[in-house]
Specification:
The chain is mainly alpha-helical. It has helices at 7-39, 44-60, 62-72, 74-94, 98-126, 132-160, 165-168, 170-184, 198-221, 226-251, 266-296, 301-306, 309-329, 331-349, 358-384, 392-428, 433-439, 443-453, 456-491, 495-511. Helix 2 (44-60) packs parallel to helix 5, helix 3 (62-72) crosses helix 5 and helix 11 (266-296) packs antiparallel against helix 15.
């Protein structure tokens, strides 16, 4: 039942603490990997699994945890997940071997999936359609806040403190979040839930692991890799089997893991899909810019995080104004406008050169962030507008799943583009073949070789080649944004339907008694 009164905003505070702890951890590992290689004696393959394993579990468990919250109670699942996340963070900090650390990261991935899905489903229950866009804007703002905060805090701690504090710092935040959930978040669950679709949970998990692992392999070994193609195709086939199974469950009158009836709504379907397209467009900046700042312009890890602040400012600004823009212009116009701004920012960024100064880069990053915040908050609000107490967990899981899958897909696509352009430019610079082979592993390897040999020619070539790769990545991001514009114009409900849904939900909420 939709809550009224001020209590729901205090409950939102509890949800945001839970989201903050997950979002911060998602970006910290990028700066901690070199230290983990030394402290845990981890191989390159193990370092990749620290990140990939977390992502695999996160993507594979969102659907089961969404339905689990509907059935067992969303507050209960959220509290248990936050507690597990904090405990697993301590486990990471105290690990003395790569195996122990990986197990802890997998537990964190499962807990993180439950937190993100359950928090979003609680938000859908707490707020009516008129206030939900504002709540979603705050939710997205907290997510965005963690993007530079993780690398900045992580870089400072790795420089000045014991490496374990990078993960141990999650514990007090998780403790505050657990207290906030207990004290501020009301319990809610779907009425009449009986049983749990264990077959659907197992099959969906297997399919999602296959697809996600395949995409990760494609990002590392290329899209023609036999293993990557086999995993992606097998995962897609298994997931198609899961959808067929869910149709049988619904036909039998039982509770499905995935409520397929939600896809009858264009607002839900295209809101969820366009949220994934936003992720594809944004990942280019998050994937490439830290490497550009550190490898090309020589910034430290901390300085690199600070240089992402204009992007953060744009993200937060876009998320905050999304509510008002959608209310005045409708979902279609707000999302389309967001994608137009994303495309403009990415196209400006594609002209970046190795010696481009802070302010030109800050300008296009702010623009791109502004478009992402506006489009993502609005598309998420449109999808959540179709959820109620019965299906908020299942629906939120779908929204989160599409957004989570956009990260490995986007990273793989853009990583391939950056790598191809980087190597092509190095080969075009008439450098020795052995040098190109060694420097071509990464921009950091190229810079290290150039500095070790004292070759200013190689250093300039490496920086120029990677900057060309950056331009290709941002052009790809602009392409995703243009695709988003087309899809939003063709399929998203316009202003009249948006206003009708908001008014209908608002009237229904005002007729319900307060739970606050």
């Amino acid at each position: 039942m939709i809550q009224t009164g001020g209590a729901r905003w205090w409950a939102l505070l509890g949800l945001m603490l839970a989201i903050l702890v997950v979002s911060m951890d998602g970006t910290i590992l990028s700066v901690a990997s070199p230290t983990l290689a030394v402290q845990l004696k981890a191989s390159e393959s193990q370092l990749q699994w620290f990140s990939s394993g977390y992502l695999l579990v996160l993507a594979a468990t969102v659907l089961p945890t969404g339905r689990l919250g509907d059935r067992m109670g969303r507050k209960r699942v959220l509290f248990a997940s936050v507690t597990l996340f904090g405990a697993s963070s301590v486990w990471c900090a105290l690990s003395t071997s790569p195996t122990a650390f990986l197990i802890a990261r997998l537990a964190m991935g499962a807990a993180g999936a439950a937190i993100t899905v359950t928090a979003l489903s609680v938000l859908a229950v707490l707020f009516d359609e008129r206030e939900r866009p504002k709540a979603v804007g705050i939710y997205q703002g907290v997510n965005f806040l963690a993007l530079p905060l993780g690398p900045v805090l992580g870089g400072w701690m790795l420089t000045h403190l014991w490496w374990g504090w990078v993960f141990l710092m999650n514990a007090p935040v998780a403790l505050l979040a657990a207290i906030g959930v207990l004290a501020l978040v009301p319990e809610s669950k779907a009425p009449g839930q009986a049983g749990f679709d264990l077959t659907g949970a197992a099959v969906s998990t297997a399919g999602l692991i296959g697809m996600t692992y395949g995409v990760i392999e494609a990002g590392q070994d290329g899209w023609t890799s036999p293993l990557a193609l086999t995993l992606m195709i097998a995962g897609a086939v298994v997931f198609a089997g899961f959808l067929f199974w869910e149709r049988r469950v619904i036909a039998a009158g039982k509770e499905p893991l995935l409520d397929l009836t939600l896809f009858r709504s264009p607002a839900f379907t295209w809101g969820a899909i366009l949220g994934g397209v936003v992720g594809l467009a944004m990942i280019g900046v998050l994937f490439v810019m830290p490497q550009f700042f550190q490898g090309v312009q020589g910034a430290t890890a901390i300085a690199s995080g600070l240089r992402l602040l204009p992007l953060l400012a744009g993200l937060v600004a876009g998320a905050i104004v999304a509510d008002r823009v959608a209310r005045l212009a409708g979902w279609r116009t707000a999302i389309t406008g967001g994608f137009v701004i994303i495309a403009a920012g990415a196209l400006l960024g594609a002209s970046t050169q190795p010696d481009t100064g802070f302010w030109p880069i800050a300008t296009w990053m702010f623009l791109l962030g502004l478009g992402v915040g506006l489009a993502l908050a609005t598309s998420s609000s449109a999808a959540l507008s179709q959820l109620d107490t019965v299906n908020s967990g299942s629906g939120s899981a779908i929204v989160q799943l599409i957004q989570k899958l956009s990260a490995p897909f986007g990273s793989a696509i853009l990583g391939s583009a950056v790598s191809a352009i980087y190597l092509a430019h190095l080969n075009d610079d008439d450098l020795p073949g052995l040098t190109v082979s060694a420097a071509g592993q990464s921009v950091f390897a190229g810079v290290a070789i150039a500095e070790k040999t004292g070759s200013h020619v190689l250093l300039a070539a490496v920086r120029s080649a990677f900057t060309a790769g950056l331009g290709a990545a941002l052009l790809t991001s602009a392409g995703f944004a243009i695709a988003g514009i087309i899809l939003a114009v063709l399929f998203m409900p316009g202003r009249r339907e948006t206003q009708g849904i908001m008014d209908a939900h608002g009237d229904a909420a005002r007729k319900e008694p307060s739970d606050a």
